[in-house]
């Protein structure tokens, strides 16, 4: 089992300044899943209790001289502490820059190794970052779990495949920060968020207590997938009345999610997405948030990077 590569300058920027900052906010640990063509960060994928977060990168976006081999179809997966990985990358970049005044002439190597730590009798696996200067080298080791077995990798791949299913209707929010600021205020009102998404391009978020109801509506959003025109007679109705009628017609779905989970998913704004799509899975199985990244300077979607979250829904009878 071998993995070795050099981080590109773009790869360093993506990890250090964007994606690791977001995953560090999501939770303590995640899986790193390496294949011949992609790298995945998988948070909470095998646990249905919290927010699942999946980031996927095409290998050439992150690495040069990428080499991987294993007896499991050249797939390697392991878990690690995100904060330790984030710290190691930031520190390595700082040292690399200090050594050479820039990254162009002094690349950062990353590889999978086994070492015998002090006070241990068995070698342990590490993800190692190596920065070579003119007369010295700096090595930083990030401890990782024992790489997953063949059956565990199959389980992880199966969970990943099922998590890629798209909701039938997705609505686009151009500025995710608008939702972040609003839901951040909602957390002082209640713990449960009602989210309604319609085929007409409406997104409603609402929380309430016995004394107060607080909500916001985004109308006429771009729709991907199943869409329909809102009846003319609904235009003068309140947001709640319109959503109730749309649900009754089968033109909308509504779910309840934890405010805390919703806020956690919005930490993904640290990855600097250009927009976000919201959708509800069939039978209200989960709330899905897909973040869109554009090729810089264009209006084309960057298909080399993807990021999405799945939020578990609450049982309405439990509130």
Automatic annotation (TrEMBL):
Keywords: Nucleus. InterPro entries: HUS1, HUS1/Mec3. One of its GO terms (biological process) is double-strand break repair via homologous recombination. The keyword Nucleus applies. Pfam families: Hus1. The keyword rRNA-binding does not apply. GO terms for cellular component: checkpoint clamp complex; nucleolus; site of double-strand break. It is found in: Nucleus. Belongs to the HUS1 family. This is Checkpoint protein. It comes from Brassica cretica (Mustard).
